[in-house]
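Postdoc handover notes: sequence design on the structure in folder B. Input tokens:
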């Protein structure tokens, strides 16, 4: 313990002696004042035009990532990159040919079932007519069920709740 105190006191004493010797030096002579000449002019009111050109990066205060609920090619862009937009403003229109194709395919299935019904209705044998009516009714019910599934999945796809694969599966099964 005493050794530690001695080791701490020795450098402090050496520093104190050095500081006192440095403070005892001779004082230098005062500096002579230098004379500065100043030009004075009256104050004039004028416009200052100064242009500064510089390169830099500008960052927006707010930024939003645009992510569509379905993946499709862009059909039409309504705004340019970097333009100011408002919440809810239509920015892009996506291709919808695959969804329109699925609707047309469902319509064709329905038309085919309707044609089968009309063919069966013209049959002369009552048993065949009755069977055909049942087939048409079953086909119409199946079509309506598939159409409801397809419409539901298409709506969910637009809302981003399901993948496009599920809509394609519904389209393939109809």
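Designed sequence:
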């Amino acid at each position: 313990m005493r050794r530690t105190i001695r080791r701490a006191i020795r450098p402090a004493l050496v520093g104190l002696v050095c500081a006192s010797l440095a403070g005892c030096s001779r004082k230098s002579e005062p500096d002579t004042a230098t004379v500065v000449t100043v030009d004075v002019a009256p104050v004039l009111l004028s416009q200052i035009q100064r242009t500064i050109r510089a390169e830099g990066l500008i960052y927006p205060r707010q930024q939003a990532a645009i992510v569509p609920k379905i993946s499709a090619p862009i059909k039409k862009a309504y705004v340019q990159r970097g333009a100011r937009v408002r919440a809810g403003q239509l920015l892009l229109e996506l291709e919808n040919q695959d969804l329109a194709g699925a609707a047309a395919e469902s319509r064709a299935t329905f038309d085919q079932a309707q044609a089968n019904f009309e063919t069966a209705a013209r049959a002369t044998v009552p048993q065949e007519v009755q069977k055909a009516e049942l087939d048409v009714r079953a086909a119409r019910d199946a079509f309506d069920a598939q159409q409801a599934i397809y419409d539901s999945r298409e709506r969910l796809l637009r809302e981003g709740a399901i993948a496009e694969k599920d809509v394609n599966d519904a389209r393939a099964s109809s």
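Context for whoever picks this up: Strands lie at 74-77, 92-94. Don't rerun without checking with the PI first.
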